[in-house]
Amino acid sequence: MRITIRTANKRDLKNYTDLLQRTYEEAYTNKKLGLGKELFSKVVFNSPDTQKYLLGNLEITDKQKTWLAFDDKKLVGSVTVADVRKKFDFMYQRIGGEKARELAKPFYQKALSELAKI
Predict the structure, then answer these.
(1) CATH code for the domain in which residue 14 is found
(2) Domain limits at 103?
(3) N or C: which end of the chain has fewer CB within 10 A?
(4) 113: burial class by Cβ within 10 Å (0-12, 13-18, 19+)?
(5) Quick one: what percent of the chain has pLDDT higher than 70?
(6) What is the DSSP string of 73-84?
(7) Which alpha helices (DSSP H) does the chain contain, by range?
(8) How confident is the model at residue 62, as a pLDDT?
(9) Of 114, 117, 87, whose CA–CA distance to 8 is shortest?
(10) Each residue of 11-52: pLDDT tens digit?
(11) What does the pLDDT average to over 83-112?
């Protein structure tokens, strides 16, 4: 496994969408709560409103940064740090399993070191 981390850009939208769709479907589907897979489908994640929201996550500004983690060329994780109402809101997308444990610590360290520069 060769993990690289870089700043996101708008060209990452398709892979970012696919990652989040798979992640949300796996993490949040819960029949007991009435959260079926259809709520996290590719159709939902590729709808205009969702695409606009996700594209907004990829915009790098002085108040928002998103980094992407790749295993070779495959997108395996993302982290977004945004200044929201004078406090920082951390949004971490689950990776799952052993990769999560291996990636989470350096990923957050990178985000926190960059956060200090904002």
Answers:
(1) 3.40.630.30
(2) 3-115
(3) N
(4) exposed
(5) 75
(6) TEEEEEEEEEEE
(7) 13-28, 42-45, 48-58, 97-115
(8) 85
(9) 114
(10) 999 999 999 999 999 888 888 889 899 999 999 999 999 999
(11) 59
Whole-prediction pTM: 0.72
Which residues lie below 8 Å from residue 53, measured CB to CB, with a gap of 6+? none
What 8-state DSSP symbol labels residue 72? T
Amino acid at 90: F
Q: How far apart are CA 37 and CA 63, in angstroms?
A: 33
Amino acid identity, position 6: R
Contact 55, 10 (CB under 8 A): yes
Q: How far apart are CA 90 and CA 37, in angstroms?
A: 25
Nearest to 76 by CA among 104, 39, 53, 50: 104
